[in-house]
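Troubleshooting log. The previous structure file for this entry was overwritten by mistake, so regenerating from the original sequence record. Sequence copied from the archived sheet and checked twice against the printout by T.R.
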Amino acid sequence: MGGKQDQNEVYGKPAKYDPSFQGPIKNRSCTDIICCVLFFLFILGYIAVGLVAWVYGDPQQVLYPRNSTGAYCGIGENKDKPYLLYFNIFSCVLTTNIITITQNGLACPTPQQVLQSLRQELCPSFLLPSAPALGRCFPWSNSTVPELPGISNTSIAQGISGLLDSLNARDISVKIFEDFAQSWYWILIALGVALVLSLLFILLLRLVAGPLVLVLIIGVLGVLAYGIYHSWEEYRVLRDKGASISQLGFTTNLSAYSSVQETWLAALIVLAVLEGILLLMLIFLRQRIRIAIALLEEASRAVGQMMSTMFYPLFTFVLLLVCIAYWGMTALYLATSGQPQYVFWAPNVSLSGCENVPMNTSCNPVDQPVNSSCPGLMCVFQGYLSTGLVQRSLFNLQIYGVLGLFWTINWVLALGQCVLAGAFASFYWAFHKPQDVPTFPLSSAFTRTLRYHTGSLAFGALILTLVQIARVILEYIDNKLRGTQNPMARCIMCCFKCCLWCLEKFIKFLNRNAYIMIAIYGKNFCVSAKNAFMLLMRNIVRVVVLDKVTDLLLFFGKLLVVGGVGVLSFFFFTGRIQGLGKDIESPQLNYYWLPMMTSILGAYVIANGFFSVFGMCVDTLFLCFLEDLERNDGSVDRPYYMSKALLKILGKKNEVPPGDKRKK
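Regenerated output below.
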């Protein structure tokens, strides 16, 4: 008793009975107001950055090709000339920078202004059959020309290859478009199958959660047992051969270690220990596993009662798209702010007559240089001027935009978690289910969260954002110093990255449970995070068991949905499913893997969205269950709100007199 008392003092005292508490608090006040004001001011600044980018930026520099005079193709005066023509295809071979992807798109230093002389390479010496791609005229790979001095079909092929090998967009883009045009209908059907499978899996858990968890646990035990057997067989064979690690020595070829007996002995020991731990857990934690299964079944019932919660991720997805699209457009406009700058350039500065030409100095593309002593001298695009207040602050504005991207995305995710927690908590704390469940639990939770707890969500999102920004900075430094750092520096950098990764995981876990407590009790972020953490630490064994059982079950569900859709897509798009009828035929595709991978990726997104709702439901009901155990004792005045299955597993019951309306 003394040990238990000390534990309660360390992790706080159990929640006390409150006769006025009947689910999520309705009479609440605004929380974390200072952070709410700070968040709104930041959003206003984020909007101001977008307006500045809109005024000074010009995305046409990226969207439309530009000729050597600086004029855009396809707009303005050149509206009837939408394509950029490369007059000298050999410049794409001779230049050391064959293809330059700059802020104005694909750049190949060839002039397009027709002047007086072919000698200066300012007019085309020949014309090739070509086709438009990305606003540019790309020659056909089998193009041939009449015999000209110094020009051969091999040189032409090299020039074309210099273009298409770097971009390779002409054929691939057309084929990809054709494949999507042929298969989009079937991709939508595959996504519909994924949606139905995800929904059925969650709804059927109320019936098959227990047997399914048992089968999965037995499957894990079986896999470990086979691993032990295989490791023993490999160890026995290598032991008889005398293959030892002392003979191999140290090597960076990791596959070589599979041929020594010590490797398989270590694997045998590790797998045997894991098998033993899992068996002991099944023996001593079987009661808690039964509680976890009962909570999963209860979560399935809650989702079935509030089907609108399953489609809430669509709203979250739209908000995330808005956040990402706004950041992307702002970054694009900021990147294209400033006037274009042109410099002198020649394909070969070592030729006679080019020594005295001031290369890389500014020039005017309208007045092309006329210098017969330097062959191929021209005025080409280099970049955008960095003068001006906006251009000098461009880096700071981009950093502000990245911070805005992370903060808004984390806030949107926090909003979804808190709203779903409020809806599912109203289900648990309804004494008579489903009669006492509110009519519109999801909309009520959304209104409460947005009205009272915007600041608390922004507080939690800001903490997570700072950790993520620190990880991004660390990754950037690691990438810059990767070629120069010594092994000790790499080890230290790896330790820092690992620590930040663990910190981010912990912050996400803490925030998730803090949002649940905010949705129920309406307190600020710090108090909610503390109460949630203390409650979980007082029931740490139950937390671990439920978390692992839920992870195992949801992993199997995702594997079932994604794997099922992937297998069906593979057999259908490769034409291996026969006998479907004349109206149902596999489309003729250039790349069958393209619609297949699209279907698999879409199925994963759908399954992840559905199962994230179910996972939030399980976590919310679990916290409510722990609160229920601490607040109530099953008496007439303090009845339990948990389901009959949980009461039976715990050996408890509500002592309600016969005929009482609250009888469960």
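Residues 52 and 390 are 8 Å apart (CA to CA). Archived copy saved in two places this time.
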